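Structure in, sequence out. Go:
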C-alpha cells in the first residue's frame, strides 16, 4: 500500500507537490500494525504487592526509558497471557497515550497499557517506528479528544507502520541498542550516587543519654542506648540560606519570560515551556538555585543558566556553603532516600504539601570532600550519557 503524507499542509487546501518543498511530501510503503504484530490489552488483579513479579502502570512507562515497576504481584495472580516478556513493547493507550518502551524484566501490565509483540520485525525497529513522529501523529488523530485521552485497540491495530529498506533497518537497530546501553549506564550512575548518600546518612552511633538515667532511674543498656547520627545536618544549618515560595501569576503571554509549573519538571530537567509572562525580571531564577515542588510527588532541579519564573507550587532555595553544593543537594532530593526524608516532613489532610518551615527541618547528608568529588564525577558522567541519549532520540524521531 502506498500512502502520501503531507507534513506541512495546514490551511492551504492544496495538494499539488510543486506548492511545497520537496521535503514536505513523504511517500512511504506501509503495513497495518495488526499485520506485523500481536496486540494484547492488560488487566489489574484483585491484590497488589503480594509477590515479586513487576506490575507495570502508565506512570512507569516513558519513551526510550527502561520501565521500573513500583508495584509487584504474585506470578499466579493473573493468566499467563497477561505476562509481558523481555523484548516485548509496552505502549500506553490511556492518559499519556503513545509512549512506547521495551521491557527487560518480565511482568504484568494493567488495562491502560497494550503489549505489542512481533515475530516479523525486531523489537528495536518496531520501538523506533512506534515512537517516531510518523506513527505518533496517527495515534493522536485516532485518540478520543476527551479530558483523559484514550485509544481503542481496534484503532491501534489500524495504525500504519512504514516499511524500510535493509540499510535503514540496520541503522535504526544500532541506534536503539545504543540507547538501551545508555539507559543501563544512566541507571548504574544513579545507583552509585544513591549508594554514596545511603552510606553517609545511615552510619549510626549509639550513646548513653544521662538525662534518661536521671529521669527514669534505670541502668539497663537496652533502655538507655539512644540512636544518634553524626553524618547529618539540617537545611537550616546551611550558610547564607534563602528559602521562599514561587510566584502566582494568572496572566500569560505568547512571549516573555518562561513560567514553569510542577508538571514542567521531569527527570531533574525543565521540559519545553509554552507559558510566558511579561515584566517578571525580579522573579527570575538565578544560577545554582534549587527549585523544589511543594505538592504531590516531590521533584527538584538545580537551575544552571535558565531564567524562568517558578509558580507558587515551588519552594525556591539558595545558599552558599562548602558542606554541600546545590547540584548535589538537588540530586539528593531526587534520590529515594531524599524523597523519603522530604515526604516525612510533608503535611496536610486533603492535599499534602511541603511548606517552608518543614523544609528547614529536613536532614541532609554531611559529605566528606572525597565523597563530594565522587558524586560530582558521577553527575558529570550522568550528564554526558543523557546528552548522548537526547541526540539519539532526536535522530529517531524521524528515522526515514
Amino acid at each position: 500500500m502506498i500512502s502520501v503524507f503531507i507534513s506541512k499542509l495546514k490551511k492551504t487546501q492544496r495538494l499539488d507537490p510543486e506548492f511545497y518543498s520537496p521535503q514536505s511530501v513523504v511517500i512511504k510503503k506501509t503495513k497495518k500494525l495488526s499485520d506485523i504484530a500481536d496486540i494484547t490489552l492488560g488487566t489489574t488483579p484483585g491484590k497488589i504487592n503480594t509477590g515479586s513479579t513487576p506490575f507495570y502502570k502508565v506512570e512507569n512507562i516513558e519513551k526510550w526509558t527502561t520501565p521500573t515497576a513500583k508495584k509487584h504481584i504474585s506470578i499466579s495472580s493473573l493468566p499467563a497471557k497477561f505476562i509481558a516478556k523481555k523484548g516485548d513493547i509496552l505502549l500506553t493507550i490511556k492518559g499519556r497515550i503513545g509512549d512506547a518502551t521495551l521491557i527487560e524484566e518480565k511482568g504484568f501490565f494493567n488495562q491502560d497499557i497494550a503489549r505489542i509483540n512481533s515475530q516479523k520485525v525486531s523489537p528495536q525497529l518496531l520501538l523506533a517506528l512506534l515512537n517516531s513522529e510518523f506513527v505518533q501523529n496517527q495515534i493522536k488523530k485516532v485518540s478520543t479528544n476527551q479530558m483523559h485521552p484514550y485509544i481503542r485497540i481496534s484503532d491501534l491495530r489500524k495504525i500504519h507502520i512504514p516499511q524500510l529498506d535493509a540499510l535503514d533497518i540496520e541503522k535504526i537497530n544500532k541506534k536503539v541498542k545504543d540507547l538501551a546501553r545508555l539507559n543501563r549506564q544512566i541507571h548504574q550512575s544513579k545507583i552509585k550516587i544513591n549508594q554514596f548518600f545511603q552510606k553517609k546518612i545511615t552510619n549510626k552511633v549509639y550513646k548513653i543519654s544521662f538525662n534518661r538515667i536521671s529521669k527514669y532511674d534505670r541502668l539497663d543498656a537496652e533502655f538507655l542506648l539512644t540512636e544518634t547520627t553524626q553524618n547529618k545536618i539540617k537545611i537550616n544549618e546551611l550558610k547564607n540560606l534563602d528559602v521562599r515560595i514561587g510566584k502566582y501569576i494568572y496572566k500569560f503571554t505568547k512571549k516573555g519570560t518562561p513560567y514553569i509549573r510542577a508538571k514542567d519538571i521531569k527527570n531533574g530537567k525543565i521540559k519545553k515551556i509554552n507559558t510566558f509572562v511579561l515584566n517578571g525580571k525580579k522573579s527570575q531564577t538565578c544560577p545554582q538555585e534549587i527549585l523544589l515542588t511543594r505538592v504531590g510527588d516531590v521533584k527538584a532541579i538545580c537551575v544552571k543558566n535558565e531564567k524562568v519564573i517558578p509558580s507558587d507550587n515551588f519552594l525556591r532555595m539558595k545558599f552558599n556553603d562548602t558542606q554541600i553544593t546545590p547540584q548535589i543537594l538537588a540530586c539528593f532530593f531526587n534520590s529515594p532516600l531524599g524523597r523519603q526524608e522530604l515526604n516525612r516532613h510533608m503535611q496536610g489532610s486533603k492535599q499534602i504539601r511541603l511548606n517552608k518551615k518543614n523544609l528547614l527541618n529536613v536532614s541532609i547528608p554531611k559529605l566528606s570532600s572525597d565523597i563530594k568529588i565522587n558524586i560530582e564525577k558521577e553527575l558529570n558522567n550522568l550528564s554526558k550519557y543523557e546528552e548522548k541519549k537526547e541526540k539519539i532520540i532526536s535522530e529517531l524521531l524521524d528515522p526515514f
